[in-house]
Amino acid sequence: MKSKRRIAFSLLLVLILVGIAACMMVIGRGHTVYFDNKTLEDYNGQEYKAAHKVVVTVKGEEVAKLGKRERGMAVWIGQNFKMTLEVTQEKGDEPEVRTISLKLPYSVDGIVVNLPALLAGLPEDAWFSEFVPVETESVDEEVPGTGDEFGLDGGLGLEGDLGTGDIPVG
Amino acid sequence: MKKKNIPAGKKALELVRGNAVPIMFVIICAIFIPMAGFSPSYLLNEIITRMGRNLFLVLCLLFPIMAGMGLNFAMTLGAMGAEIAVILVADWQIWGIPGVVLSMILSIPFSALLGFICGTLQNMAKGREMITSYIINFFINGWYQLIVLYIMGSIIPIIHASIMLPRGYGIRNTVSLLNMRQCLDDLLAVRIGGVKIPVFTFILVGLMCLFIIWFRRTKLGQDMRAVGQDMDVARDAGINVDRTRIISVVMSTVCAGFGMVIYLQNIGNLPTYTGHSQIGMFCIAALLVGGASVEKASIGNAFLGVILFHLMFIVAPGAGAFITGDSMVGEYFRVFLSYGVIALALIMYEAKKRMAKSKAGRELAEAQKEKEAAE
Amino acid sequence: MSNKKKDYNLNSPSKFTDEMKTIPPARRLTAQEKTQMSPLQAMVASYGLPRLLITGFLLVLFILTPFVDVDLVTQITNIINRFSWNAVLVLAMVPMIHSGCGLNFGLPLAIICGLLGSTLSIQFGFTGPLSFVAAVVIATPFAILLGGGYGLLLNRIKGGEMMIATYVGFSVMSFFCMMWLLLPYSAPTMVYGLSASGLRPTISLDGFYNQVLAGFLEIDFGEIAGKLGISLGALEKLVIPTGSLLVFVLLAFLMWAFLHTKTGTAMTAVGSNPTFARAAGINVDRTRMLSVIMSTWLGAIGILIYQQGFGFIQLYNAPNNLTMPTVAAILIGGASVNKASISNVIIGTILFQGIVTMTPTVMNSAIHMDMSEVIRIIVSQGMILYALTRKVKGSK
Predict the structure, then answer these.
(1) Lowest mean pLDDT across A85-89, A156-160, B34-38, B203-207
(2) Distance from C-alpha of A127 to C-alpha of A116, rounded to nearest angstrom
(3) Which of residues 278-337 of B touch C (CB under 8 A)?
(4) Which residue of B has its CA nearest to C181?
(5) Of residues B232 and C43, more confidently modeled
(6) B332, B333, B346, B348: which to substitute to probe chain C, counting the most C Cβ within 10 Å?
(7) Chain C residue numbers touching B329 (CB-CB < 8 A)
(8) CB atoms within 10 A of CB A125
(9) Which chains touch B (3 or more CB pairs under 8 A)?
């Protein structure tokens, strides 16, 4: 009976681990949120003007101070995004402080938020867009494992994984 | 097991001999530190960072030593398992502490499988465990490269192009772990006079130490030590020797996987193809510098070893530049010391084993002679 | 008698090993009947599964060549060439395996001796073919000295040779990494240009002994065809480095002959059964020492031959890169941890170098994916692992 108990115990352990892992996958999902302080032209025939200055605070840390047509960004772990905006509509106005929570979609890495639309309380499709990273043609990286030619001219024809030359510091 | 009835003088001599390596390193460090000319706070900071980074990895070497399997050069397998887990987690964009926890959990099946393979092979090569584990390293490294370089992105889906090679499959030389960087270290971190102490990482290390101390007292731990003492006796006592040995390697590998995750979150990026290659060597060298031997190692050895070895590692290039005007000399010197200390420990171990063997043989012969005389 | 399972490779002097091990001295003569087994049968029996797989893989590669537009003759030339570079290094494994010292993972030590020979030869101003002779002459005392010390060490740690050899090799190599920087070398072809001290990682052998052996009596079918004014078709690309091969044949023959002398058989006896050997009045430690010195010297000569083919001296961490392939090669050839023969050396080197040469080109043309490095690592390390985990017959 001891072995049965042991199997049950290990199954339980595996289940707990899987549970924790699943939990982590949900709460640990990282997103990058971009804020655009940009005039939204012609949404249902209306125009939403960019504010003169917006200060974005996430988790008590000022992440961006946006003038007109500027973009800021913040990283956020989890789906319930919270930020505090300090909006100055026109130059000289008293700044207005607003706390905003957003639900971030799980599957999207980068989220662009249009602040004027968001502040005006428009529906999601007005302020939300997905951030698509520009394909930056990276510097030609040497493909590992293929850089070593084994022709008669180049290579040793050997593996040299122990090379002490490239010791990582640590 | 402590040997009793040894004369005090001999014991003291043995103590000095047993600690020859740490003493040597203390002397080397004492000479090198002024030459390198680093400020004490810099050195302290570096040492504490490196302790947080490496201690967990070094501690995982203790299990196979307990089971008499020598230095586990195949702890690299755990590091490879962890790297695969970390690549996947980075691709799924799980960040911060949840990312670290997920990487650790995800690394368990990989490390356990690799550890099982390793243990099984080592059981097939009893008496040659170390060289076998050393070769397993390279062998599994081949498979690791196959998976990471060819299968990831073509068969295993990889979502983000940012970690993939431009050709469309395979992982880049470096995977950025920026969003995971030092998240364990920063948790509860304390700063004392410009020295950052990663308290949480040290708590993890402490838990590992407690686990090792507790484990030594469990039935399995006792079995392991019995196997380490004498396999035949253990077998006669009804211990499943092969199974116990495999468990010790699996434990070591899994813990090495955790250690590697801690290591990587500290570094903040993953050198995909070189990250693990030197890990085993450095951890083993560090443990040996702390005064451990092939058949005996303690938690204290691990701590002392990490401090001394990494102190030497930090100051050697500077000292080399000071003496010869070429920092490369210092770099080669520290590599030489790392290899040298492992070679020395292995030589001392084998020589001792051989001495004990011949002594036992002599005693046996004498006993036989006495018996004959009595008859 | 369990010796039915043993392989009877007729070329193998290690046959003797098995008989010493399993057959009591009185019965040894009757074992002669075993030698009447047909060579073919013996070959198949001794071939072993991994070797069969590797040979099969290589054959598949050969068969594939015409279909993927790879020139077979060029490939064969490459294999012959690489064979000529590496064969002596692989041969260097034989004495130590015979005397029971296991696989020589300490090859970097031997290579260092060769490197000392080659760098000093250039430093002393030798040029042309003479520099090769000088390198051999200079390397020899180093090989005897370092090999002797190495042998002394290995005699004190019987049973743990392989692991210690590995790390002694590393230690010596990293020690010489410092030495290459610190020793007062000054030949302008070798040192860094700016600081005029410290050896460069790669030193060209042009003007010294580049191709000195390979060029000796070289058979270049293309040239012959040109001279005779006839066309040999694809064969024209075939070039045979006769000199290097001749040197290998000479050394291999000497090794074979040595293993059949009294000292040689004593060495085999030490490897297979030290207790028996001691009882027979053989000085075990001295025999082992001799084998280590021989291995070291052959390794030193081997690297010189490698250099003359490759055209460069490689310093610093380069010696390390040769260890695993060399060990893997002799194992692929059918040797085990305590048994090796000249035929193992030849077959192993051809198979291993065949794979090394063929995989990148064939794979690349066939699937546009160069997996050769990965395959090479898995094949060679797998082979070593197989040899280590095989139940070893006889003593440790």
Answers:
(1) A156-160
(2) 8
(3) 324, 326, 328-329, 332-333, 335-336
(4) B329
(5) B232
(6) B332
(7) 178, 181-182
(8) 9
(9) A, C
The number of beta carbons lying within 10 Å of the beta carbon of residue C211 is 17
Give the gap in angstroms from C-alpha B348 to the nearest C-alpha of chain C: 9
Closest residue by Cα to residue C396 from B130, B359, B125 = B125
Task: Tell me the CATH number for domain A27-130.
Answer: 2.60.40
Q: Does C380 lie at the interface with A, CB-CB under 8 angstroms?
A: yes
> Do C321 and A158 make contact, defined as CB atoms within 8 angstroms?
yes
Contacts of B108 (CB under 8 A, 6+ apart): A17, B254, B257
- Distance CA(C91)–CA(C340), nearest Å, equals 10
- For residue B160, what is the nearest residue in chain A, using CA coordinates? A109
The structural domain count of chain B equals: 1
CA distances from C259 to A88, B128, B146, C32 (A): 94, 27, 42, 19
Ramachandran area for residue A69 (φ above 0: left; ψ -120 to 50: alpha; else beta): left
ipTM of the complex: 0.83
| Three-state DSSP state, A163 | coil
CATH (residue range C14-20+45-388): 1.10.3470
User: pLDDT category, B93, cuts 50, 70, 90?
Assistant: confident
Single-letter amino acid, residue C353: Q
Q: What is the pLDDT of residue B161?
A: 82
- C329 in contact with A at a CB cutoff of 8 Å? no
Q: How far is CA C252 from the centre of its chain?
A: 11
CB contact under 8 A, C157 and B124: no
Cβ A170–B97 below 8 Å, yes or no? no
Q: Which residues pair with B176 in a beta bridge?
A: B269
Residue C232 near residue C72, CB atoms below 8 Å: no
**Residue A58 in contact with residue B78, Cβ under 8 Å?**
no
Does residue B372 lie within any of the structural domains?
no
A158: contact with C, CB 8 A cutoff: yes
Q: What is the pTM of this model?
A: 0.83
Question: Chain A: nearest CA to C183, how far in angstroms?
Answer: 20
List chain C domain ranges.
14-20+45-388
**DSSP per-residue letters across B269-283:** EEETTTTTTTHHHHH
DSSP conformation letters of B278-328: THHHHHHHHHHHTT--SS---HHHHHHHHHHHHHHHHHHHHHHHHHHS-HH
**Residue A122 clears pLDDT 60, i.e. is over it:** yes
**Nearest-angstrom CA–CA distance, B258 and B252:** 10
Q: Distances in Å between the alpha carbon of B347 and those of A43, B180, C171? A: 79, 41, 13
Which residues, given as ranges, of chain C have pLDDT below 70? 1-47, 391-396
**C positions 84-113 inside 8 Å of A (CB):** 86
Q: What is the pLDDT of residue B3?
A: 47
Spell out which chain A residues touch chain B, with contact meaning CB-CB distance below 8 angstroms.
Answer: 17, 20-21, 23-25, 27-31, 75, 77, 109, 133, 135, 138, 140-145, 159, 161-162, 164, 166-168, 170
| Separation CA C90–CA C86 (nearest Å) | 6
Query: Are the C-beta atoms of residues C214 and C80 closer than 8 Å to each other?
Result: no
Contact C333, C58 (CB under 8 A): no
Residue A146 binned pLDDT confidence (cut-offs 50, 70, 90): very low
At residue B319, what is the residue type? A
Q: How many beta-carbon pairs below 8 A join chains A and C? A: 57
Amino acid C37: pLDDT? 56
Residue range(s) defining the domain that contains residue B290:
24-31+38-356
**B224 CB-side CA count, 13 A:** 26
Where residue B341 sits, what CATH number does that domain have?
1.10.3470
The confidence score (pLDDT) of residue C39 equals 61
Q: Tell me if B165 and A141 make a contact (CB, 8 A cut-off).
A: yes
For A141, which of B93, B138, B173 is closest by C-beta distance?
Answer: B173
